[in-house]
Amino acid sequence: MPSLKKQSALQEKEGSRPSSEINAAMAKKIRDSRKKEFTVDEMFTRLRSGDKSALSQGITLVETNQPKQQEKAAQLIEKCLPFANESIRIGITGVPGVGKSTFIEAFGGHLADAGKKVAVLAVDPTSTISGGSILGDKTRMETLVNHKNAFIRPSPSGDSLGGVAKKTRETIILCEAAGFDTLLIETVGVGQSETTVHSMTDFFLLLKLAGAGDELQGIKRGIMEMADAIVINKADGENRKPAERARAEFRRALHLYPAKESGWQPKVLLCSAYYKEGISEVWELILDYEQKMKAGGDFSKKRHEQNKFWLLQTINEHLKSRFYNHPEIKKLLKQQLEALENNETTPFEAANYLLQQYREL
Asked: What SS3 state is found at 122?
C-alpha cells in the first residue's frame, strides 16, 4: 500500500535530470536578465502592472545599502506612494514552533482562492554568529508560493528590532502599488520587541499554543496588550480540549487589560492550520475589525500615528548611520574601544567623548 505521508519540498524526488542544453539555456536567460538594469520609470511601470519579478527587483533595490541604489530606491518609493495605502496590513507573530508558516500558507491560500491578492513578507531570523539566514519560507509555503494571486518575499531580520527587516515599511508601499490588497507580515516572534511590526500593521494577530505554558502568559502585559486577536493554533485531535480550556483562560486574561482606545475588544479563536479548520472565521473577524475601525475613524487615525512613528524612526536610523559611517568617528571609536579594553575609560565616558567629537565635526 503506498504511503500516505505528506511529501515535503525538502525531500528528493526521483526523476531524470534535465539535459545540459536546457540548463545552459536557463542559465543564459538568468544571466541576461541580471545584466539588464531597468530605469526607475521602467521598473515602476512593470511593478504597477502587477509584474512579480519587477516587485522583487524593487524590494531588492530598497534593501540595498549602496548609496547610488538607495537614491533610485527613494525615487521608486516616491512614485509608488500615491498608489499605496489601499490594503489591509496584518501582522502575525508567535513563538517559534507555534506554526506561523503553516498558518500563513492556509490563511493566505484561503484569501488567494477567494480572489484576494496576497503578499507575504516573511522575516527569517539572522544568525548573530555567522550573519546568515535560511530564508526558507518559500519552501515551507510550497503551495501558496505557486498561487497566481500570491507573492512571498522572505527577508533576513538582520539586527533590526523585533525581527523585522529594516526596509519592511518601504516594501509594504511597493507591494500595495503592485496591487496587493492583503499584506501578511510574519515576524520571528521574540517577545515585546514585536512593537515594531505592531507599528506598521492595521491588525495584529498573536498565535498561541495550548499545553505549552502559554495560558500563564495571559496574566502578563506586553505583547498580549497589543494583540487585536489571539488564535490558538493546532486545535485538533487530542489537543482540541486543551485548546478550548486555553481559549477560556485567555478570554479571562484579556478582561484584565484596559480597553483599547478604539473600543475594540480582542477576540480569542481556535484553528488548525494543518487541517485548514477555523481559517475562514479568522478572516471574518478581521473584516469585522476593519469595518468597525473605518466606521469610527480609528483606522485612518492609526495609520497617521504610524506615519509619525516611522518619521522618527527614519531620523534615528539616518543619524545612527551617519555617526558610525563618519571616517573620523570610525578612527576615534576604534581608539575608545581599545581604551575600554585596557580599563582606561568607561563605556559612558567613551560614549560622551565620541558624541562630543561628532558635534564638533
From this structure: strand
